[in-house]
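Technical note accompanying the year-one report. For the benefit of new consortium partners, we illustrate the data format agreed upon in the data management plan: each record pairs a sequence with a structure-token string. No post-processing was applied to the example shown here.
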Amino acid sequence: MPNRVRALVVRDQDRVELERRARSKAEPAWVVQRARIVLSSAQGLTGPQIAERVGCTEPTVILWRRRYAERGIAGLDDAPRPGGPVSVLTPEVITQVLADTVSPPPESLRAQGVTLVGPPARGLAGLATGDHHQPRPDRDAVAQVLPAAAPGGGVQVLHRPRTGRQDS
């Protein structure tokens, strides 16, 4: 059974843009592939010939040829994906989380002698105020909480040396 040729009619304005996309080294591969599919179809090649030339399957050729015929060059863009946008925490929620996590321990733990020794976690507080990109001298230090006894019977907070430094 011979393959039918379904030549697309490509407008001149679209042809210029499709040729730019097909030659581009900066565009993602899927953009180049879709442009090459449409341009090859406009030359009168069959679906299997286009698939072999472009390096895809014939159903892929059929899909992008149909999308271009229906919607023009805008049809070559990705369709919206299902699901809603990723929700980002609001400043109010961030402030509440930080207030809950940076505040002193509850009375039940204080009765057991749990305290925090060391500087306050000012890096966390910066997240709530939006100034977390300010330079901090202790940015490269990673805090470790060790169960060693601190003065007064609390938990001691130590800082690990910066990367690249060796302790003997």
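Partners are asked to follow this layout when depositing records. Confidence is low (pLDDT under 50) at residues 117-150, 153-161.
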